[in-house]
Amino acid sequence: MTAGGSLFSSLGSGLGTMFAFGRTADGNNSPMAAGEPIEAADENWEKEREALISVGVKALMTLAKVIAGVASGSLAIMSEAANNFADILTSLMTFVALRIAHQPADDVHQYGHAKVEALAALVQTGLLFGFSVFIITEALRRLWEGGSIIEAGVLSFGVLIVSMVIDAIRWQSLRSIAKRTKSQALAAEALNFMADLGASGAALFGLFMTWLGFPRADPLAALAVASIIAYTGFQLGRQTINTLLDAAPEGLADKIRDLVSSVPGVIALGTLRLRPFGSQVLGEMDISVARTLPLEQAAKIKTNVRSALAQHYPDVSLTLSAHPVALGDETILERILLIAAKRHVAIHHVTVQEIDGRISISFDVELTASMTHGMAHEIVSRLENEIAQELGPDTEVESHIEPMMPAELSGRDAPAAKIAEIQAYLSKIALPDQAISEIHNVRVRETSAGLVVNYHCAVDPSLSVAEVHDRVDALDHGIRTDFPEISRVIGHADVLKQASP
Asked: What does the alpha-carbon distance between residue 182 and residue 187 come to, in Å, rounded to a whole number?
């Protein structure tokens, strides 16, 4: 692995491995200090094991290349040895940064310590380019002096060939594991072994050309090795800087916007912020939903958005905020009912009129019967003012205050004689109105507020809702006139079943 390899590794290893530990029980993207799932812990250990194997392999290859370089005098081989030695230092630095990055979030570092990896990578970038400059300087000096005498023996060729074989094996192995575990760290390790493979190949070619009698081939090969190291360092260093600067993955924001805007119920999209965080992408997003929706429906829309993201972009985790907005097709009635619902005020019998180009609104308001009129008037005035602001300053708003029945009344069934008397009276006063018949299921309860009467009746199904309401309402008022002890009457209209021909 090149020194630059550990640069990319330090960017991805700590961050990606931190997420490999899993998410907390509440779904947040914070590292799990303890109690992580067994599968995640095993996967994390597998990644750390592969990193340690890479360190061991590089240590052996460094020793072999130092021996071969000293024996042959090849700058290209010595450059490779220096490169491998730098890999050991940077890999160990990455491993230490990884251990720090696994520490849980605290009050100071509320998103965890993952960016320690990126800071370590930034240091490694400087070391990487320092080695490249040194190699290039020495190579140019030897080219100026006409090259050096190189003893290209079997040891030199053998070390480079074995190194290339090991690099190829490690490259394929790490790439396979990285693909399976979706680990950026191991993907970086695989990339570095591939870069080492190319650098060793360049050194081998230079050594071979020197053996054929071209003394300048070795410093030229060293320049090629330095160029590969520098290019790899540039690519991986750019990724590190992007991580430190929270640069969003290119094109991902547009794809997410297209996906979220297609979810039913999403009216518009607001701010979208993304930032890479190891193998994950974290962010915040604002969506707009219709303000007339109940809270449960708005929450369902957010759930659908998260499900769509999880299906198409499982590595993206967004914090969603739903903002209610007014739709162009909202009716005046919907707007009035929404305002009343937000103020937890019960209104009914809403009448909307247009008089000479002005809107006139009237409605009934139900407030607690024991409330003082002064307090009730203040509540209603605020409601009227808000409706006027919503619909325009020229809107006329008037309300009628009604006492609200207690929400809960304890009571007991009335005597059977009283129930029979009330049922007979209901049937009697319903006779003149042929649209109402079959008074049944009459229940009468005695409460502290008076008698509460519930009954069912049958009505002609061809009647309109307004017509049925007027007839049932007249029936209710009629019985309350002769039975003043009745405080509440609830009449339920069933559909009159037509006789079969």
From this structure: 8
